[in-house]
Design a protein that fits this description.
Helix content is 26%, strand content 30%. With 334 residues, the protein is of the alpha+beta class. The protein has a seven-stranded mixed beta sheet. Helix 3 crosses helix 4 and helix 5 runs parallel beside helix 6. The protein is built from eight helices and 19 strands.
């Protein structure tokens, strides 16, 4: 009789489903192209993005950009909002407050991290996160050494640690490496130094965490095959974005297949935005998928008939787009 009762109780228990046994997080990386407000930030060279400048950056254009950024972030997540968003080229916390509290995103409760760094124009790397799925523990910025006589100071590396729903600690490192000003080879050493800063952070995390879950995201101004990316990979990271393909509504599969990077320059696609994940995390997580998010409203057709990022400006002329970069998405199941 006891055995019969036990079997009866087992029959009453719900069968496990994929939703119960498998959970997903979505991370996004995006260089949002000059997210400036319309006010002068003392000590920063932001005059280009003021109402009386040649660019005539004004409130209407600012809010148009914010609304379209909010649309992009919300569409990227679909029914399940994006959990973590790494942004490059953000001026200050005021623009992040407007983005997260005064657009359609307000209902989602995003919080943010940004610290003022040494970039002369005043742009920095930033992180948006949903506290429900990423409980922030700490954050820190790490400067990149530069030669003051030859180089402009660059953006600090942002490192955020938080707890995700399975109680693991996730370390997110947001980067925006030095540009290729003066040529790729001429400026390569500076990007290698930036990669070295990331490598030091990764090495230190490996020394204190048994199976570190690390994600490095940002605009590296280098391709996956370049030395700065290889230096970071040698620290136990895999570039999961190297083979990413485009997804997005409003285009055919054939049109999406022509999008072969995140940045279009001199009639060629570049893959300078990258996402790298610690090998230890890849072994523990059930699955990861990385893609380029390319909905129709982030794109326009150029004179060659190619679909390319819909930029905010073409030179000093307002063009009306959102960004000259396309976002990367990383879905991870654990």
């Amino acid at each position: 009789m006891k055995h019969t009762f036990s079997i009866f109780l087992l029959l009453l228990l719900p069968l496990p489903t994929s939703a119960q046994t498998e959970r997903k997080m979505c991370l996004m990386e995006w260089n949002c192209e000059n997210l400036f407000d319309t006010l002068h930030d003392y000590g920063k060279d932001d005059t280009q993005f003021l109402p009386d400048s040649e660019y005539a950056w004004n409130s209407g254009r600012y809010w148009h950009k914010l609304r379209n950024m909010a649309r992009t972030i919300m569409d990227a997540g679909g029914l399940n909002p994006v959990d973590i968003v790494a942004l490059c080229e953000v001026e200050n916390d005021s623009v992040l407050h407007d983005l997260t509290h005064r657009t359609r995103m307000a209902s989602l409760g995003y919080q943010y991290v940004i610290e003022d760094g040494p970039d002369l124009r005043g742009v920095d790397a930033a992180l948006l996160y949903r506290p429900e799925t990423f409980q922030l523990l700490s954050h820190a910025t790490h400067p990149v050494p530069h030669d003051a006589e030859k180089e402009r100071p660059t953006r600090d590396v942002l490192h955020c640690s938080g707890v995700i729903p399975n109680r693991d600690t996730l370390d997110v490192i947001v980067v925006h490496f030095p540009s290729r000003r003066g040529g790729a080879k001429h400026s390569e050493g500076y990007r290698l130094r930036a990669a070295g800063v990331v490598r030091n952070i990764v090495d230190s995390l490996h020394s204190v965490r048994l199976h570190p879950a690390i994600v490095v995201m940002g605009d590296c101004n280098d391709e996956p095959s370049d030395r700065s990316l290889r230096l970071m990979e040698q620290g136990g990271l895999t570039n999961v974005s190297a083979a990413a393909t485009a997804v997005g509504e409003g285009l055919t599969d054939k049109q999406l297949a022509t999008i072969r990077g995140t940045y279009y320059y001199q009639r060629e696609w570049n893959h300078i935005d990258n996402i790298l994940v610690a090998d230890a995390a890849l072994k523990r997580w059930r699955k990861t998928e990385c893609s380029i998010f390319a909905p129709h409203y982030l794109l326009e057709q150029n004179a060659d008939g190619d679909f390319v990022p819909y930029r905010v400006y073409l030179g000093p002329h307002y063009h009306g787009g959102v960004s000259d970069h396309l976002p990367l998405l990383l879905d991870l199941w654990y």
